[in-house]
Amino acid sequence: MTTQQLIQQIKTKKSFLCIGLDVDLTKIPTHLLEFEDPIFEFNKAIIDATHDLAVSYKPNTAFYEAYGIKGWISLQKTINYLNEKFPEIFTIADAKRGDIGNTSSMYAKAFFEDLNFDSVTVAPYMGKDSVEPFLEFENKHTIMLALTSNEGAFDFQTLTIEGKELYKKVLETSKTWKNSENLMYVVGATKAEYLTEIRKIVPDSFLLVPGVGAQGGSLSEVCKYGMNSNIGLLINSSRAIIYASNGVNFAEKVREETQKMQLEMAAILNRATF
């Protein structure tokens, strides 16, 4: 998917919502456990209930890998369902990969060619040769961790080194890499006050912003400081949406929570000028 196609979908749906499909079998409605593949049935119900309100879905691969080969099959069925039924949806493999060049090349093939995700999250700690293999794929996007929403982000990411915070050095350096136009960045919603500085470095890039909802991030604050002339934001919500209910009618409750966010986003977009 091209960036322009993503932007058009956002404008059409008046939404820049990404739903995280982080499936924990101990939390899903118990009636789904009767199915042969409860993970896929849970995901399918959520997708069917929200595909007109969300522009992206983001399975965190850890929640699938934890169940071994069955979990991986559930992930493959989920991405196949999205690509076949809703090809306009932007898909994110939240895998946080990043290794030496040959290994990264194989990770990239796994997510971009075999599973056919539109994007994958990567960790940049090993530098250029761990990220550039992902950037080689046309119309695929690499979403690099920049400033995350967890408490431990302050251990390294905001440290000042030679007069500049590390996350800023990471952002600046990434712009020099081959095919860096295929980069997006993860910035936690709980770090909204940093977005002004981040936009000075990557004014045109899309930012994937987790942490709105259960983690307490503010949508209005993120949009105030992070939105650019092409919207430039994908706001992820996982637990607050997918676990809205554990009843038989859980999909209806999921849609209600999704619609609340979509309406808030529509109001923000209506006030903005692009």
Supply the helix-strand structural class.
Answer: alpha/beta
Sequence of secondary-structure elements: HEHEHHEHEHEHEEHEHEHEHH
Q: Could you give a short account of the major beta sheet?
A: 8 strands, parallel, barrel
Spatial strand order of the main sheet:
1-2-3-4-5-8-9-10
Global outline: globular
Classify the helix fraction into a percent range: 40-55%
Tell me the radius of gyration: 18 Å
Taking the alpha carbons of the first and last residues, their distance comes to 21 Å
How much β-strand is present in the residues? 15-25%
* DSSP summary: helix tally: 12
Question: Quick check: average pLDDT?
Answer: 94
Number of strands: 10
**Poorly predicted spans:** none
Describe this structure in words.
About 45% of the residues lie in helices and about 15% in strands. The chain has helices spanning about 5-15, 40-50, 60-65, 70-85, 100-115, 130-135, 155, 165-175, 195-200, 220-225, 240, 250-270, and strands at about 15-20, 55-60, 90-95, 120, 140-145, 160, 165, 185, 205-210, 235. It has an eight-stranded parallel β-barrel with strand order 1-2-3-4-5-8-9-10, surrounded by five helices. The longest helix has 22 residues, at about 250-270. It starts with a helix and ends with a helix.
